[in-house]
Amino acid sequence: MNGSTPATCGTAPADAVSPPRVVNVHLEDLMQHTEAELAQVLHTGPFHLALRTALSVRGLPLQRVQHHLAHRGVKVGVTSLSYWQQGARRPQRTESLRAVKALEEVLELPGNSLLRLLETGNGRVDADRPAARSYRSLMEASGAVERLLATMGSPMDGGLHTVGHHERIRIGPGRELRQRESQHVVRAHRDDIDRYLAVYRGDPGCDPARVEVAARENCRTGRVRWDRETGVLVAELLFDTRLRAGDTYLFGYGFDDATGGPCGEYVRGFSFGGGQYVLQVGFDEAALPVRCRSFAQVSAGAPRGARADLTLTGRHRTVHLVEQGVRPGLVGIDWDWE
Questions:
Q1: DSSP letter string over 166-221?
Q2: Which of 38, 75, 112, 227 is 20 to 30 A from 129 (CA-CA)?
Q3: For residue 61, what are the CA distances in angstroms to 34, 35, 100, 112, 195?
Q4: What backbone torsions phi and psi does residue 18 show, to the nearest 5 degrees?
Q5: Does the reported pTM lie above 0.70?
Q6: Which of 10, 2, 5 lies closest to 334, judged by CA?
Q7: Phi, psi at residue 278, to the nearest 5°?
């Protein structure tokens, strides 16, 4: 499912010119986000995007990089460096690969982090790159998800990973999950990507045939498949454009449910790490929990850690969590009704 894996509830898984405003921004917050983005693109590639991001994060102009390389006995032209970061050319000759190795030192990157992105030119993840987490490690109903994806002719890696995701969950007066809304920003790590497969899993008693899929912004609904036994639904969201590797895309979508039983948690799984994730859960005034906590898990069967108590806001009755740079695995919020 393209970078983030099924979220589950219940069982596991403008043109007007405005006057300038003064905004207080902490430098370390900006750096954390930028470093997280760099770590993500070093993980997924492609090479030219990783190099360009590293140059931006380190604040080094190409002339300065060339100077540092020359001090290491490596001669490479500014034009070549420019072509490499634009994706117009790929370093392939022995001397060029030596320059890439030196670039890792100049840009203070992990060893072989750029070189391994050059080991394949067709966009496939090679053996030396960190693999994405499988659905099997991230949700208990992984078999149903895999079968539904197969019927849609979709590979397990849809060519997208999350850059930012703001998710809102509404819990109804009967303690049921009524609505899930997503504002999602993704980046393609392969060419010719024009869709996203969103996976939804309801609580026990959920009838996925009655769950409504809503394409809110910059997408439209394609095929929808479900598995009644597990309450899993897969929805194809078609983009308004075709993405190339490195392109980002923002779109909004949602699921309207209210067919399942009482909901006691919401969990989101990530097969790729590095993006920002915000989860907000809102409760109906007639059904307020007595306690809410955030948590993280390495896998669906692992113990829950990083526990933190969350306090409901007064008027809007919501709680939230923010993960600046998610890691592969699961994060979520659970709550007690009694």
A1: EEEEEE-TTSBEEEEEEEEEEEESSSSEEEEEEEEE--TT--GGGPEEEEEESEEE
A2: 75
A3: 17, 18, 16, 22, 35
A4: -100, 150
A5: no
A6: 10
A7: -125, 125
